[in-house]
Amino acid sequence: MYRFPWVLLLVAAVNMAVAAEPLRPGFYSETCPPAEFIVRDVMKKAMIREPRSLASVMRLQFHDCFVNGCDGSLLLDDTADMVGEKQALSNINSLRSFEVVDEIKEALEDACPSTVSCADILVLAARDAVALSGGPDWEVRLGRTDSLTASQQDSDNIMPSPRADATSLINLFAQFNLSVKDLVALSGSHSIGKARCFSIMFRLYNQSGSGKPDPAIEPEFREKLNQLCPLGVDENVTGPLDATPRVFDNQFFKDLVGGRGFLNSDQTLFTSRRTRPYVRVFSKDQDEFFKAFVEGMLKMGELQVEQPGEIRTNCRVVNGRPVDVLMSY
Length: 329
Ligand code: HEM
Ligand SMILES: *[C@@H]1O[C@H](CO)[C@@H](O)[C@H](O)[C@H]1NC(C)=O
Ligand SMILES: *[C@@H]1O[C@H](CO)[C@@H](O)[C@H](O)[C@H]1NC(C)=O
Ligand SMILES: *[C@@H]1O[C@H](CO)[C@@H](O)[C@H](O)[C@H]1NC(C)=O
Description:
Elements: H1 5-15, H2 35-49, H3 53-65, H4 98-111, H5 118-132, H6 152-158, H7 166-175, H8 180-187, E1 194-196, H9 201-205, H10 219-228, E2 238-240, H11 251-257, H12 264-271, H13 276-284, H14 286-301, H15 323-327
Antiparallel strand pairs: 1-2
């Protein structure tokens, strides 16, 4: 993939920028007119190859934006002197489909070299994942730049655990100016995709150290989960996050009302008085859910911190850092 390291060094000098321009729709309409089309096209191909990859790519926006803003930091591979976010507790053995992002980036570099940031790719691809799964479609604001670094620690300090309860989730989202309604709507992203037994063993067998299952799980559903994830199972085995894991719809909220949420952090949104009204509304009114979800995704996509940025040419590596390439010679 790399030609010669000195090419990368030159590119770095050209692309370095500090200013965070305000985001706007159609940011690439002059500099890369086909950008949005290219992203959707690669996402369609990914969907045909592996339907779950839509969910996996959509999740990346959340894990990127909550940690130092939407800056593509999540996508950086570790280097000799940096342990990045991919190693963080919520990400390792869990985040997937990075190869789809690579494919999008390669197609964009072919069409418009050094123009579309990896951070913007994540926001575009998340939107497309939802639209291609039968959910809403919306216009996104663009113009983000990519970080020069990433930190496992920063991700570990922020990203929520599947054990989280509604109160801690409300407080976490409030730190990002996201409301209780945003929290519930954004959790509706779990309308698509899967999770590992690893994420629910505690609630099946030892909720809050009680040695017992989470009483909020509907008994027949618990039977199913016990079969999927018996004690001693390979905890990489996965199950669907709602009853229709390939369709972006409000089934997720109907499942919560019925005690059939997969994750503890999801079911707690119905158990808790503060979040329950939103779960009820979204379970009955899919349009309300879609509207609130789009609002939440736009707000989450605005999270930015002042820091140096660039347009990476490879989403996994900072420009002009051929160190690992040299080491592999
Ligand atoms: C509210 C707090 C949240 C918690 C505690 C949480 C937690 C989790 C966990 C534990 C998994 C399964 C991981 C595994 O077992 O490997 C998961 C999957 C997923 N999450 Fe979240 N999540 C939250 C919010 C969000 C948000 C805001 C989004 C996107 C907008 C999102 C999108 C997804 C998707 C699409 C999947 C399935 C991915 C796949 O199939 O590969 N989550 N989440
Ligand atoms: C939340 O809003 C406050 C007040 O508008 C602002 O000062 C703060 O920077 C915002 N926080 C985030 C993470 O956007
Ligand atoms: C359940 O959790 C508690 C507290 O974390 C722990 O002390 C106990 O050993 C666990 N029990 C089992 C059966 O894993
Ligand atoms: C899941 O698989 C990964 C390798 O893909 C392995 O390193 C890890 O230990 C497995 N995790 C569990 C909980 O079995």
